Amino acid sequence: MSTREKLLLATQEALVEDGIAHLSARSVATRAGVNQALVFYHFGTVSELVEAAARALSDQSVAHYRERFAAVDSLGGLLALGEEVHAHERTTGNVAVMAQLMAGAQRDEVLARTARYALDLWRSEVEAVVRRVLAPSPLADVVDADGLARAFSAAFIGLELYEGVDADGATAALAALERLGVLVEAVDDLGPVARRAVRARLRRRSGKRSTS
């Protein structure tokens, strides 16, 4: 394993086990078993080291689920996969890392950039599913797939953070998202006449909102 790889692995372990508040060039170098100066040689700053380590974690996580996202064929399936991802990411400590990035982003642009990168990776996968699932639906003409994907992504990130302080509230919020998925599927199960009526009604409602 190269020195750079050792530092990235040590940083990932430190983020999960100790948190970003306790992370320093010295603590990472000690964990990696290398000289502290090598942190700055390879990464420039501690924030950039954290960025590289967190990006690698995000890349690994999203790649692990990419085929699963590609196989999802309903919003209900998307929500079910989201629950699975949430449980896995919490177990691996990646949820804690994201929470720390979000907190650090308030005062560090490098960490903010890192958090946006991670969020965009997940949003891209979710958006592809949303577009595919809504394509044949009466909702396709009035629902912004990108906006809905961002809403789902934000909801899951929020639930991950929310669960730590109010597990029951997080469960209730997740149940509400599941009911939304059931509602969309119910609309899709309507006959062609009813589907056209729903589409027309939604278009009228959307037009009223855009002109109000």
How is this fold's topology laid out?
Layout: H1 3-17, H2 25-32, H3 37-43, H4 46-71, H5 75-92, H6 94-104, H7 109-134, H8 145-163, H9 167-188, H10 192-211
Helix pairs in contact: 1-2, 1-4, 3-4, 4-5, 4-7, 5-9, 6-7, 7-8, 8-9
What is shown here, in short?
Helix content is 81%, strand content 0%.
Polypeptide structure, described:
The protein is mostly helical and 212 residues long. It folds into two domains: 1-44, Arc Repressor Mutant, subunit A (Orthogonal Bundle); 45-211, Tetracycline Repressor, domain 2, CATH 1.10.357. The protein is built from ten helices and no strands. It has helices at 3-17, 25-32, 37-43, 46-71, 75-92, 94-104, 109-134, 145-163, 167-188, 192-211. Helix 3 packs across helix 4. The longest helix is centred in the N-terminal third of the chain and has 26 residues, at 46-71. The chain is elongated, with a radius of gyration of 21 Å. The model has no long low-confidence stretch (mean pLDDT 79).
CATH fold call of the largest domain: Tetracycline Repressor, domain 2
Number of strands: 0
Rg is 21 Å
Helix content: over 70%
The average pLDDT is: 79
Architecture per CATH nomenclature, i.e. the level-2 architecture of the largest domain:
Orthogonal Bundle
Supply the number of helical segments: 10
Shape: elongated
Which tags fit this structure?
single chain, 212 residues, mainly alpha, Arc Repressor Mutant, subunit A, Tetracycline Repressor, domain 2, 2 domains, 81% helix
